[in-house]
Amino acid sequence: MSPREIFALRDHLGAELKGRTLSDAHDVVSLTDVLSQTVLGGRLRELSGRAVLLKLSDQLRSGLAMIELDGIARRMLLCPPDLNPAHLDALMADAGIDAVVTDEPDSWDGVPLVVTARLPLEAAAPASTERATEWLMLTSGTSGVPKIVGHSLEALTGAIVAEGPAKGPAPVWATFYDIRRYGGLQIFLRAVLSGGSMVLSDPHEALADHVARLNARGVSHISGTPSHWRKLLMSGAAAQFAPRYVRLSGEIADQAVLDGLKAAFPDASIGHAYASTEAGVGFAVNDGLEGFPQNYLGNRNGVEMKVVDGSLRIRSTRTAHAYIGRNAAALTDADGFVDSGDIVELRGDRYYFVGRRGGIINIGGLKVHPEEIEAVINRHGDVRMSRAKSRKSPITGGIVVADVILADGTDPARAKEIRDQILQQCRSQLASHKVPAVIRFVEALDVTPAGKLARTDA
Description:
Helix 1 (59-69) links the parallel strand 4 and strand 5 (75-78). By secondary structure, this protein is α/β, with parallel strands linked by helices. The chain has 2 domains: 3-347, Rossmann fold, CATH 3.40.50.12780; 360-441, GMP Synthetase, Chain A, domain 3, CATH 3.30.300. Helix content is 21%, strand content 28%.
């Protein structure tokens, strides 16, 4: 294959597409001019053919380095900001890392090549694509060393290419995710391939300030986890924002959050997508309902899905090609399907997500998905967000307790009435062992750096 036939990000940044930007809370960079500039201090040639770790403190330099390195480096390992430093040595050994791009160059003794990424950009000669770079990402949600997942750019962008070019004005994208995780990277790649711009999030920025920045930058398309969106709805800042395109992914999108977003953004296209780091983008649901139609199973738009023992399995050209490492497990089964670990249940002609196989809690010897309980609690009109978990009990071994955030404007004097209504709702829709024994009203619930509801048993 000749270099001209290799697909790389720089091929979508032609000079004819004017006015495109990539920005964070501090800087704005022209994507139109980035082909003749460098974030790598002019040292791109030294990184040719290398396995590069991207370990940077901000998303802006990370995104610019991805564009510059794609098609030049042999592989890139994207390092999210919350990675435990104790895991770095093992991950670098598994990925065969022989170069690091960083903004802390003094911390890498023993690495053959360390390149400092810096702003503002410097002038540089345009680079030519040399090879198909392998993209390595880390799984989230584990306290141990995360797994390394290997993707090609073709797989990462499969769903984007299948959708075709965006209609109407070039979109301005944003996401609550970090672009060094799969969900955020998908939006970053959409911005590059769609001819649009992107506004990056900042974990240290107040939500109201973030929304003001999204408005100032003209954001039209935005994604996040249901937990991200619930926090926005609770903040009151949604009233100051009017995106055209709203998407949820990363967690179960229950009916309550979908209805809340439709009420907040009546003129927006609102949908939820199913994707994972291993399985890639599976499908999108745009009918306003939780779950997905039964007829999505089988082969649909090049994505094959089936349910085995309640778990959704996916096979497509969008999936990762392997776990990377010395003792890496097989990523797919013998037939090439990725076992997502997401448990679904058929009710009528629609499948509903009930929880993660690895997230089950034990209640008196019975297995319970906390998301199933939360979906029922969240249906109450005065509830904005909830988290169910187990607590040890000397009698039954375990009970369900639920922390609940009430919607803004709820009268505190109605707390007992609301608690009784939630319990009655749970009793009418859940098996008795799933009904919370304790309901606590709280001001906030923790969300992980990946944007998902933090789950710890009490």
